[in-house]
Fold this protein.
Amino acid sequence: MAINQNSRKFRPRYVIKGFLHTESPLFTGSGLVVPHPEIKRDDGPVEVMAFPRAGDTPYIPGSTIKGALRDWAHIHLQDRTILEKVFGKGSSEEQQGSGGRARFMDALLALKRIEPTPLPYWDSKRQTYVEAHVCIERVTGTAAEKMLYYQETVPAGVGFKVEIRGKADEGSLYQEVAFILSALKGFTHPQNPILLGADTQSAKGKMYWECENILFLDKDALMAWLKRPCPLQDAYRNAHLEELHHLENLSKSVETTLPDRPLTVSVTITFDSHFLVNDPPRPGELQEKERNPESDLPDMKPLLDEKGQPSLPGSAIKGALRSQAERILRTLFEEGDHNRAACHPGQEDACKPIQDISGYERLCLACRMFGGPGWKSPLHISRFKCIDPGRETTQEFLAIDRFTGGGAHGAKFNIRAFYRPKFQGTISLDIKRMKNAEKDPSWALGLLGLLLRDLKEGDIAFGLGSSKGYGTCTASIDCWDNANFQEEVRNGLESLRKEANKTRRP
Ligand SMILES: [Zn+2]
């Protein structure tokens, strides 16, 4: 019987094993919405967007990891031939599953968080908590009390086991593996790290990659296996130390390019009063309060991070910045032009969805900078870490005090909050992405400069109770006195004024 030589051509195989640890909260949708047994609203249980899981074990879909690695490698790594060999040709979602020789397994939860984990609706078994995404009150810039949607989220400090399997050309086994290792280093890239999942503009999905080991099934290992058959997975051998060194050197030599660095400023926010992002009471706590109205359970208490420190979510920062930006834009533009400056999302005059970049110019300036339907925001907020929690305090208010602007229940109510906490993080603007869509987006740098000035001088508040003096803060900005930064902002302001004068009647 004739044997087709081609079909017998042996391709060495490899397995890369390691861990991805969350450094900030991670949410990736499973497409499922499930009622939460504990969270209820007047009209019944609340539906929560579920994190993918197998049984009770959460996992990151392999396609999510592959897509993020491919997108990053496409921008940062030079070798297109190996990129397509390993990851396939398409980068669109439909094509991610096919093409390319590397197969990305679903990464199952492998390392649990240190307990206690004081997060809302913390589920120790699933290692998830529930994040309530609040609607930003556009007039006051504070979070309104009306909840919009809920996401089952994995906090920082959780590890997922990653496994990447593939077949390589015999002559380029090490090159292909080294290419994947280079792409994996994208997770810890200092300027442009890979971020996984959704809401990455508000600091979600920062991961730390740790390689555990690399296995090979080459000709020698295959011959050994033929002599002593066992399950094929046991025929793989660990990479030798010299091979690991070789791979390390090869992965270093994969040429990386850094796209134009987004303008990044480091910001320290210091509250000069009480600060509260509310973590609404659980049903059990509400029942307890009803049974014993004199109990000192607070009616409102701060949202905590996984370490029990106050949390200032990136989405809250972005929301407050956006409403301040809308105010600024509407003051700069003539009344008839307000909608070109800043639309009202969710209302009738909101920008219409755009299909591709050609529709970009139809978006208002606020949507161009903060994201609009069909356009992802070029403004990124890193995770703001609490560097000093300040003091935890409880204050008592009379019901008549309209703390949130809504009606209060009970005779008086307790508010637990942190007094003078401090947070640190970065805000960056990817002006290059905007340049692909409009000729001169430098107005955005002018607007960013105005926002940072307002933040610095205490004109932007975060969290609840601004009418009671809560949430006021000042900020220090690392590059504020830097001459280049000042010049960019000055030029940006000039463009912003030109933009505002475009349709001004003489
Ligand atoms: Zn808009």
